[in-house]
Amino acid sequence: MTEFSYQVIAQCIGFIAMIFGWRACTQNSHSGFMRNNMLASLLTAIHLGLMGSMAGMANQLINMGRFTAGQSRRCRTGARPLILATGFSLIALLQGILWAQHWSEWCAVGAGVFSSFAVLYLAQNKLKLAFVLTNLMNLSLSLYLLSWSGMIYQVVAIGLLLKQIHLEGDVEGEINLEGSDAGMEASKA
């Protein structure tokens, strides 16, 4: 397979990941947000691996774990959120130590650490606002790698997230450690 064909395949996978990521940004339910982000993370991991970023690929594989834990009510009660968030953060830092070769890859590591806590402690608009920040951090890696799907995804995702935050109202009182959609909807009332 030629280098050009290889790059076309990598970019196409990135564009498919983008669709799932954008769909996640428009979800009103916590589970829909997490599930679509989980699928986007899997495809983005493949995309980044094909683009040559082992740190980015590893980061996205850990994102899948974060989103899986964020969907589970069991993972969001008691001491579990702190243990899981700390564990995911340490794994992200280890990934950076092992594979980060450019400052933009460290931005992706920082986004991983931040999202480790956000996914387990925040809900609805506060979680979406946290994802605005992590998308800005990940945008630096997309720019460095010249990942067109990544650049387009992050810019549009930031816009979609901000639009959803605006449509759904303010971000006060939305921290939800129970993890249920009903609890999140009740916190908005």
Automatic annotation (TrEMBL):
InterPro entries the UniProt entry points to: Uncharacterised_HI1736/YgjV
Transmembrane keyword on record: yes
Superkingdom per UniProt: Bacteria
Record-annotated membrane-spanning stretches: 6-25, 37-58, 78-99, 106-123, 143-162
Keywords: Membrane, Transmembrane, Transmembrane helix
Protein name stated in the entry: YgjV family protein
Source organism of the structure: Shewanella maritima
